[in-house]
């Protein structure tokens, strides 16, 4: 029995591809396929795939929520997908500065660190370095 | 001695006026004028007043951070200022739905409640009702 | 266009009835019907309605998560539905004590206050008092 | 069977009296006497009553933690007990400003509001007003 | 002078053994013996050791609280002790899915990652690999 | 154009030197010089540099806020600067114990771990070991 709608799953996967995220969340698939299916179908298909707000706006507010919550995992990938869909490095830094004033200075410190690591990862990849390392998540 | 820069204070106050927020934070002024000065000059002058991100984008990411953090106070006013600068009711509802999936369902419940209260406050004001009540903060 | 699956919606509504929650979340319906549909179909239908964990266990872990997060809204109703499905007052107090040691003493203070308010609401209803007040959410 | 040590309970109650907090937490006693006993004996007896840090320092760091966590309940009383043991209004405002920069601007807004309410409560009491209202918690 | 009750300490240590946790928290003992004593006697003796809720229920709600709070440390060990007392892998995955909908999708991502690491640690130990590595905490 | 006041920047840098923090936050400078300037001028110059509360008190409440918020980054350095300005190891352990009871036991676990790492870093440095490793942040 497949618990999620195939239509939602396909729409979700399409959104993920557009954002360069199609190789992510595979550890969910390995441990618990239902989790992966819900992440693709419900989160990316039924939420990110909704009309009413541009993909850019959804990415900006998601970055903001994640920076504010300052969790140890789950934000690196959004710096990458933000740049993938055309949000500039400068804009991301402004999002960090803006959110940090609502969530506290250490959120600026963590966000700057995580974003810097993602930029380094991309520079490395351009030079053919560390291509076998798992992407930052 | 004035501790904040007059230039920053003026820029901050101008941003606040543009957002319809110039009558807010007066309880800070009453209890501790320095707090109010820092809020106007540092938060609105030096942060909201920065170039590099549109006012609409700053408002969207601020709404998102505040919805995610789910604090008891400090978010009502941002629903009001978001609409004041042209963000639609429908867009705000999409921000709530998007952020709630990153911050948890009860953040949807609180945000929907707070936004509904702000919409009711505005309907009341249009009908000349409850004009003397302090604005929701 | 209905965005959520009717099957999920029905399953979710059935779970809500079993928990005595079928009159909740109507402020979502009033402000944004899509939010309500997602809450019923996705949260109650696709999550609460999953096999693999008893309804009692799902209610206990949901209470625990909400007590820990200490949000201003969204937990009163879970004390009510917990008792509706047979979790005792004593067990709920033990959940509060247990979680408070992982989330901090003020979460005990808030949870004890909210649970006491729900118990008072139920005593009032038994005596025919305050029947027209909106249920605590 | 009494589950907490009487020695700890007495030490805790003595600390609470020194801080002007001896009439608080009675809603815990009403709903679940064990919670109250643990709050008095463990929190105030075994933690607040420890040597190694002055009462003033313990109060300052407790205020700071509570301001940072921005919970809807449980902080009003600490503004009152802080002043009861001699921390000045000006020092409390500085704590709010300092912590807010580590926890985000809305924590300043909530803390300023709660502290202002406590100051108003005390002015009212001096004038014999609202003496029958429950103390802010 | 021993500050915690020996009776509570013994009861706590017995609970820890039952849960397979008796080798944990030794870094607390190394840095500050009082912290370790309080953790064993107060947390495990006076809270986990209380009647009124089964050990399984206390473990489920503790897992839920910790998943919800999404802290960088302190949850790995609870996946291990949950399995030690008989909670199945499948049930733990359901707890993760349930809580994540109340605390936000990145809490699912972190919990799935941490639980997967614990499962890998156990597979390694069965094969005699990495036996000298400190247990995940 | 320099966006921050030179006076504030100088005052902030002087505070940072007093606290032994002058080599920190250089990753901010590398990624986004404005962030660094704001951190020095606004956070250390305009907040830490304020009168009305001693440097020791500001350090204690900052430690407390950071321990309570339990973020993955940004607290190691405050254990170091606390000791740099004369707060003892014993006092820091008491701050951890006090705050943990308001923020939850896992915050004790994380704080004890981070503080232990900082103490180890200092022992290593005294013995001339690991001098080239980046300081814990």
Give a written overview of the molecule:
6 copies of one chain form a homohexamer. With 137 residues, the first copy, chain A, is an all-alpha fold. In chain A, 70% of the residues lie in helices and 0% in strands. In chain A, helix 4 crosses helix 6, helix 5 (76-84) crosses helix 7 (105-126) and helix 6 packs antiparallel against helix 7. The longest helix of chain A is centred in the last third of the chain and has 22 residues, at 105-126. Chains in contact: A-B, A-C, A-D, A-E, A-F, B-C, B-D, B-E, B-F, C-D, C-E, C-F, D-E, D-F, E-F. Chain A binds chain B through residues 43, 47-48, 50, 52-53, 57-58, 60-69, 90-91, 93-95, 97-99, 101-103, and chain B through 42-43, 47-48, 50, 52-53, 57-58, 60-69, 90-91, 93-95, 97-99, 101-103.
Kindly name the structural category of chain A: mainly alpha
Q: Please, what is the oligomeric state?
A: homohexamer
Mean pLDDT reading of chain A: 96
- Report the helical percentage of chain A: over 70%
Largest Cβ-defined interface? A-B, 29 and 30 residues
Low-confidence stretches of chain A: none
Counted by DSSP, the helix tally of chain A is 7
* Overall form of chain A: globular
Number of strands of chain A: 0
Beta-strand residue fraction of chain A: under 5%
Distance from N terminus to C terminus of chain A (CA atoms, Å) equals: 30 Å
Radius of gyration of chain A: 16 Å
Described by strand count, sense and barrel closure, the largest sheet of chain A is: none
Order of helices and strands of chain A: HHHHHHH
């Amino acid at each position: 029995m497949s618990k999620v709608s195939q239509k939602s799953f396909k729409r979700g996967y399409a959104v993920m591809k557009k954002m360069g995220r199609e190789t992510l969340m595979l550890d969910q698939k390995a441990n618990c396929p239902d989790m992966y299916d819900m992440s693709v179908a419900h989160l990316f298909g039924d939420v990110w795939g909704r009309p009413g707000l541009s993909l850019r706006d959804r990415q900006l507010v998601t970055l903001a929520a994640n920076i504010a919550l300052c969790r140890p995992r789950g934000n690196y990938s959004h710096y990458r997908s933000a740049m993938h869909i055309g949000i500039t490095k400068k804009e991301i830094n402004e999002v960090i500065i803006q959110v940090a004033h609502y969530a506290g200075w250490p959120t600026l410190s963590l966000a700057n660190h995580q974003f810097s690591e993602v930029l380094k990862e991309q520079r490395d990849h351009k030079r053919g370095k560390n291509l076998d390392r798992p992407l930052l998540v």
